[in-house]
Amino acid sequence: MPPAPPEPSPPGAALELLVHGVGGTTPEQMLDDPRTVRVTGDETAAMYRRTADQHAEAEPERFADGRPVPEAYCWCNLTSGNGSRALWLLLLPFMVANLAHWMRPPADRQTAAVRLYGVLVRLVALSLTVLLTAAACEVALDLTAWQCAGSARCAEERSWLGFMSAAQGGWWSQPGRRLALAALVPTALVGLLWYLSNRTWSAYEAQRPPRGDGDADATPDGRLRPALGRPGFWYGRRLVARLRAAHTAAGFLTVAAAVGGAAARYDRNATGAGREVLGWTLEGALFLGALAVTWVVCRRGRSERRLDNRVDRAAVNWLPGASLALLVLAVLYAGLPRPGWRSTGTLPGDPTFSVITLGQGVLVLSLAVVSTRLHRRAPHSRTVLYGLGGPAVAMLACALGGVMSGGVAQRVADWLDGPATPGAGHDPIGPPVLLSWQASAIPVLLLLLLVPAAVLAVRTALAARRLAPVVEAEYEGEQPDAVRTRRIAGTRACAALTDAAPVIVGIVSGATLLLGAGALVGAWVSETVPGRAFTGGHPFVESAAEAAQALGSWLIGLGFILFVTWGRRAYRDASARRTVGILWDVGTFWPRAAHPFAPPCYAERAVPDLTWRMASWTGRTGGRLVISGHSQGSVLAAAAVWQLSAGTRRRVALLTYGSPLERLYGRWFPAYFGPGPLGALHRELHCWRNLWRRTDPIGGPVNLPAEGGKPEVDHRALRDPVVYGRTHEHPLPEPILGHSDYQAAPVFARERTVLLDRLPPALPLPAPAPLPEQRSDESQGSSGRSSG
């Protein structure tokens, strides 16, 4: 008799690591089981398993059928955990500026143009810090302490300002002392931003990624390793610390310039050479401090090729302290007695906003020149706005900062002015002229946006009509239903609107730049009084301009109120907080390379978590692992796989679905997720599969062809809905899933099995360790035998 064939060996340990997408979810939903247990991690981010699978590695029979043990990584609390995260809405301009840093066109090496791009974005970010601090100074120093406290009518209506009223003649009635006291408000704001940045720096940027042969700068075939695969990419501890010190110093110096500059200008026009020399000395020290801050910001960018554990002690320790000392000296200087000083009009220094606006415009235009040069070296049709995505987003960050600053100033001015109309009466309370001109540009911008919005609406309707026969052809043999077909075709057409976002961003950014330039010119040439920017022209033009300014002022104020209201609601409501979290899921994926006061980068915690888990599990069990990421989770999964050593990466498969890797990240961040980096990831991975639907507004194909014996990454588009009409298996209408429920598709489990089968066989499992309960019983029995 022939010998019996040997029994097939068990497939060995297998793990499916699930990573959720934007908005978050619960472990129970991810694992489809109400009983889950946390196996590693903390309350912020952790790995969960079903209770029955807690010790699956010690039970080899669980792997006999080849199915992997599911394990869920929940990271939603990194972006929408507690109510204080809702306050991050106020940091939106900083976050948008940070995004512009990562939208650089690709380059083969670290050229001078690449370094110049980073320097320009960091300077744009620095201007936003100065703008925010200047807006706080405008409200506290100019509108409140200078204008309102110096006005008999305003101070009389505000009893809490009585001790600073110029009419009372008290010790605080002198303008310099009023400014010195009001400087506490912007100083406290800068201090709060420093505290929040320092606190999140120690919690996020200090997470060390694992080391391995990924420390090399080149791939095995000699190509330069993609940036996300370098060991220091997710370790921005040094850069954020240095930028935090520089931006904190810039905030203190801005407050010092507002307080001390007003007093110095008065002393130059008054008698007394000693005071004048003191004022010039103070302003010279502030100028030197500004040069030091600019040098620290421009001097050095990110270090990604190695783990940089150093901290620039000189900048981190001395720069904020020295600037705070200058602020104290400016406050003391402004508090010196000046009996003849009276506050009239606006606070001297209104040109500050004009200088900031002009500087931001020059920086954005310079950034556009550098981006165009980089894009021409390596052009690609999928890159948004022909490489100008970064400058366009930087312009939006400046616009957001201007709108928020103008909104606060306009609302506070209206509140302090009471029933009076800005520009009327003897002592009106009003913000700088430039803010009034910028407010008048808001209605014009909204009118301009109506045109592309109408074009997109018409184009979407026509696309839905063209897609109707295509949809019916895909469900061949089904009885046509006009309503069902129209709904499916409309969903597909609306999903395609995502690809039109670059055009909208380009139009808004270009219009904002032109309107901002017009507002700047108008503010310079207008004959103005506080709060009234349009005088001396044709009556019709003047009336139209004033109407636009009034409407824009109310729109800015309404927008800011809605902004704060949304943040307050998100602070109390978990569902609203989750909506805010979705915004941060997309915007705070990237490290803080440009602005240290931006919301922290959750990926600097999530990517090391995933990398450590994959490396430790495969090293301990020798098993096969498939990391399964949905939506934003697929971006985290890809970033974590990039960080693995080559030996570990051979035992890992990547399954992505509803993934924005190419559709959003590849187009907007081509230097990091463009065709080159994604192609390198495809070559380095043992196997990768991507699932997508045409009804998905976020996910899409990654467009990586078969290469080197590896099949094409993209699966053909999944049907959505699965069934067109009613059948015996589906007696009720099936929903159009769009971006959700990919795991419910039958193809999902099949593709996961194919990926696991393509991985190398699992290494022999180690001897099963006793469960904790068994170890406890054995120790008790041993103790009993010893005592007997």
TrEMBL record:
TM region(s), chain numbering? 86-104, 116-136, 179-196, 245-266, 278-298, 318-336, 352-372, 384-409, 437-458, 500-525, 547-567
Stretches of Pro residues bias are at 761-771
Where is the region Disordered?
A: 759-788
Please give the InterPro entries that the UniProt record associates with this protein.
Answer: AB_hydrolase_fold
Keyword annotations: Membrane, Transmembrane, Transmembrane helix
Task: Provide ranges: composition bias, Low complexity.
Answer: 779-788
Q: What protein name does the entry list?
A: Integral membrane protein
> What is the native source organism of this protein?
Streptomyces gobitricini
